[in-house]
């Protein structure tokens, strides 16, 4: 059975961790530099206020990146029997800072849950925030397996998927999949800042998707980007090169090779987005099968029951139907090896497989 | 009462227009260069095949941008009593081409519905694709008010919001809110194309949002961008300037003024995204409910059967689960008035509604 967990910092992540653990019956002790913020998280159900004499087994530091190392060092000293983990979005700088501070890193493990929202603070917290999400453990060789396993258990208890990495590998990875998208989104959104009102009225789903994360908190992001600047600059420079090629091509679009250069940029984008795992069936590992379904309650359930009977496991399913259309289309995402079996089983049962 | 409408081109937009009009009892005549595509749209409920002797009152040309002017000119000639509208994503070039062809533009009006999907074709079509969406009318002074009002009626019948503009103003506006987001998304996604697998495993909602439209069809986009290159280049150059400032700042992040420059870029993004009208990408008519589902065959079918038993009609369903996770999250899209009933029914049956 898990011992008490102390959470330092009751923003979105700290509160969400507290809510998830408390729901599983774990004793959660909450601390925050702001007593008001701590009280709010406690009232919200994320745990009880920390008290003198508390003896946590595990401490989770969930404070902004630029004070993470300092708070971790303080906690390591105050609780000499506890393992301390942090959840900051960068991993190499905090570890280096802890080493420079001479902290006992044999009890420290850096982690990073890949979950968040545009909103922040305790009231945006949710015990389910981490469910099914990757959670990086940025290991180092100064901590024992036994101590590290306390952190594994935390991650598993919260329904997340532990991913073993190193601080350097993690920071390079998030430069590509998190920090660059943030900056690209902010740069795009900045173009909207002085666009004419008439243009903004025409905004559709595309520009909304691209600019959604541009609503993120600048104060937090300046810390994240500051602590991972070299890896981020490397990505931005690659983007600059591609952008310059595109501008040259569009600037003289009728010149020989120009249209091909633009098409190449668009195709490279197709390739990149297809590599994203999981959701929406775009991953190369999966194949999509489209089946016609009548537009009335129960039809999709019947289809999925038939798929279950065929012992095919769905990776994703989407239904598309149309006001006024006579039928809809269910798009079933499965592993490629299951496609033929699924196809045969469905046709035998009278379903119309359209693609 | 509205006279017959002829639709030329039965891709996503043509089929969706046909479905929407047919549902309102309008006689819809379908034509497409591909008889198979036309037949599919007709089977789908978008109208009936066009026949010799048809006398449409209004013709909607929904073909790729680079053949739009040519098809509009042909339709104007073949149907001397009809008003012809197109729905291409660029407006100045087609009008100029029609003028050069000597077409009777007193019966032509260019329009552009701001609605679309990453997917294309009749089977992605939906009669409610345009509901609540802006639909630009790129007016010119060669067409009478009476003739133009036929096009207004079409737009209103499909539930869209008519927006009066000019071809030039439209093209500048879509350069900012549509063409630039497309290119930014493609450039970002291209960075994923040669990223390490380890990085892609960490991809979260942010990078998915930013890169979603990067899945769009390069063949279509090269036509759009080619016909609006000067306005797009102007936007790309402004982006280049901002990007260069950001790279300089992050390249020497501890220099005086560097952090402020990064914060300024992020704040400009905040300002821009705040200017987008309405809700963030969610269709105002629908609400999403998230339910935990175990990752084994038949679970989703059981969930959907339970939803069917509760007599709730699904608008959409998506499932999200991480590699290695024991369960996933099904996102159920329903009409807002069904949410409470769905929530209660599912909880009573033991489902865990997570949001």
TrEMBL record, chains A, B:
Domain Prephenate/arogenate dehydrogenase, first and last residues per copy = 3-280
Q: Which InterPro entries match?
A: 6-PGluconate_DH-like_C_sf, ACT-like_dom_sf, ACT_dom, NAD(P)-bd_dom_sf, PDH_C, PDH_N, Preph/Arog_dehydrog, Prephen_DH
EC id:
1.3.1.12
Pfam families per UniProt: PDH_C, PDH_N
Query: Can you give the residue ranges of the ACT domain?
Result: 288-355
Alphabetical UniProt keywords: Amino-acid biosynthesis, Aromatic amino acid biosynthesis, NAD, Oxidoreductase, Tyrosine biosynthesis
Biological process per Gene Ontology, one example term: tyrosine biosynthetic process
Q: What chemistry does it catalyse, as a reaction equation?
A: prephenate + NAD(+) = 3-(4-hydroxyphenyl)pyruvate + CO2 + NADH
Give the pathway: Amino-acid biosynthesis; L-tyrosine biosynthesis; (4-hydroxyphenyl)pyruvate from prephenate (NAD(+) route): step 1/1
**GO MF annotation list:** NAD+ binding; prephenate dehydrogenase (NAD+) activity; prephenate dehydrogenase (NADP+) activity
**Family to which this protein belongs:** Belongs to the prephenate/arogenate dehydrogenase family.
The name this protein carries in UniProt is: Prephenate dehydrogenase
What is the source species?
Agrococcus sediminis
Its organism's taxonomic lineage begins at: Bacteria, Bacillati, Actinomycetota, Actinomycetes, Micrococcales
